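Review form for a predicted model. The reviewer records the input and the model, then writes brief findings.
Reviewer: anonymous (R2)
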Amino acid sequence: MSAVVEHDKRRREILEKALDVFVEEGYSDTTFQKIADRCGITRTILYLYFKNKREVFIFSIKLFTEVLESRLREVADDAQLSAVKKLERLMELIIGESSGQKKLLTVICDYLMYLARTGGDPYQRLRRRTIRVRHILSGVLIHGQKQGELAKLPVKVVIDMLYSMLEATVFRATILSRTESSDLLAAAKLFIGRLGVCRALEREE
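Model under review:
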């Protein structure tokens, strides 16, 4: 195995274990030493892979979101599904995964609050981390509109509406400690269904 491949493999292993530390300890209480201890390495070796705790955290979250994005793309690329069904399944995945990751989402919120306290911009940071999810939703919506399956409403407005349901899911899980999200999913499906219905009405006119 080449040195580069071995380095990438070790880096990924560190990220997977580090994410557990962040979830258990919270962002503020996690230290470089705790991450090194969990990985069974020294701080010196850890510095060979990452500059600081923040970089470890960012890449840990990226590793987690890549898995979700892969599942979302599978749905978006399924030629057997209508645009409405694709959007419904995408929201099922997004809301369902968010509801089941209370501890992880709490750590992310902790990190965003830390950013705000230290002069960072949590909104822009979060937007950059979720831009691919927005692109997947937008792609399905635009394709559905071109195919005449969905009403030709402003794409940004529709995506912001769907995204707001994700934000509501996160708020419930982290602040209200509620993981039940069936009502939010039902609202998302109702909204998506109306996009198809509106298109049907446009045809009749």
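Findings: The mean pLDDT is 86.
Further findings: The CA atoms of residues 7 and 129 lie 25 Å apart.
Recommendation: see findings above.
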